[in-house]
Amino acid sequence: MPTHVPAEAHGDERGALLAFVEAQRGGLRRSLLGLTDEQAAQTPSASELSLSGLVKHVAETELNWLRMAQQKPNERARTQETWSESFRLVEGETVAETLAFWDGVAQETEAFIRSVPSLDDTFPLPPAPWFPKDGRVSMRWLMIHLVEEIARHAGHADIVRESLDGRTAFELVALEAGAS
Question: For the whole prediction, is pTM greater than 0.90?
Fold first, then answer.
């Protein structure tokens, strides 16, 4: 990520974690700058990844982790049959709507993390072959995992965007800042 995340105020671990998550969100969001919905849906590399699909997937993944931490049902839960739809916009969905949805998830994530009594508080992991039986993780782990998850997909977005029109992450940072 080619931008600087400012240092947290002394003792503001929550603020630091939220700032790093937001920095990674910014990298992924910038990959869409100047593109139409049609361009954002293109899959220019060997994979089936598109920029709009990456944004949708990350927004839904953040919501899923938030709902697990809140111990609430996920209103956008995917099934095996609908899993592939989490990586592409379907009929009627737009990039603008997907970004607005993600903005709402981001605001809810921040409010939740700021409201939990301690980052040491835990929540259960769902049964899955890749999680330990009866596993639990902390709110701190959740935030670090969101940095990891979003950063991984922001890197994918860098490659997809550069494959589309040659623009690099550094150029998109400059474009966002108003440079031509």
Answer: yes
In one letter, which amino acid is 165? D
Q: How many CA atoms lie within 13 A of 44 on its CB side?
A: 16
The pLDDT tens digits for 43-94 are 998 889 999 999 999 999 999 999 999 999 999 999 999 999 999 999 999 9
3-state secondary structure of 22: helix
Token digits of residue 38: 């049609």
Instruction: Assess contact for 56 and 93: CB atoms under 8 A.
Output: yes
**Residue 35 contacts residue 53 (beta carbons within 8 Å):** no
Q: Could you give the CA distance from residue 157 to residue 151 in angstroms, rounded to a whole number?
A: 10
Helix (H) or strand (E) holding 159: helix 139-165
User: 148: which 2 tokens?
Assistant: 């990891």
